[in-house]
Amino acid sequence: MPDVRRSLEELDEGALLRRIARGDRRAFDELYRRTSPWLTVRLRRRCADDDVVADVLQETYLVVWRSAGSQTHTSTGGSALGWLWTIAAHRLVDAFRRRARQRRVPAVQTFETVAPAAEEEALAGGIDADLEQALLALPPELRQVLRAMVLDGLTTRETSVLLGMPEGTVKTRARRARIALRRALS
């Protein structure tokens, strides 16, 4: 078994998904071991309710197990981690919708953190200093809408549910953010 574990550790997430698609439980365990801490942290940044986070995490990995075979990101150049986060983000929005229907709105943490998130550091590394400064100069309410829509790839409706604001407010803030960035960069 140590040889199997070592060989699985050498595979990237895309290769693990291909093995999961063939029903490889060890590959699934390795993917979970490797990605669940990262995914839990990202979910907790968006939802303070540990029960919701646990449910979303479970639903996400259930989808991975069931649909890894239909996932075509590896042949189209997409990221396995991106696919995993997309599933989790959509499951989180679904959980918020269920809660809203039950008249219990979950406590949502704002996106303001003391230390920058990994995706923010990666984004900052891939953009020039002017754009980085323009993004940092945006008011927090505009940055959080951009973060949800651009970094997390959520729709206007999903961002609305995630942030607990009307869709019109999301659209207005996204437009204000784009205008502010254009002005700062021109």
TrEMBL record:
Residues 130-181 form the RNA polymerase sigma factor 70 region 4 type domain. GO terms for molecular function: DNA binding; sigma factor activity. The keyword Transcription regulation applies. It comes from the Bacteria. It holds the Pfam family Sigma70_r4_2. Keywords: Sigma factor, Transcription, Transcription regulation. Residues 31-101 form the RNA polymerase sigma-70 region domain. GO terms for biological process: DNA-templated transcription initiation. InterPro entries: RNA_pol_sigma-70-like, RNA_pol_sigma-70_dom, RNA_pol_sigma70_r2, RNA_pol_sigma70_r4_t2, RNA_pol_sigma_r2, RNA_pol_sigma_r3/r4-like, WH-like_DNA-bd_sf. Belongs to the sigma-70 factor family. ECF subfamily. This is RNA polymerase sigma24 factor. The lineage of its organism: Bacteria, Bacillati, Actinomycetota, Actinomycetes, Micromonosporales.
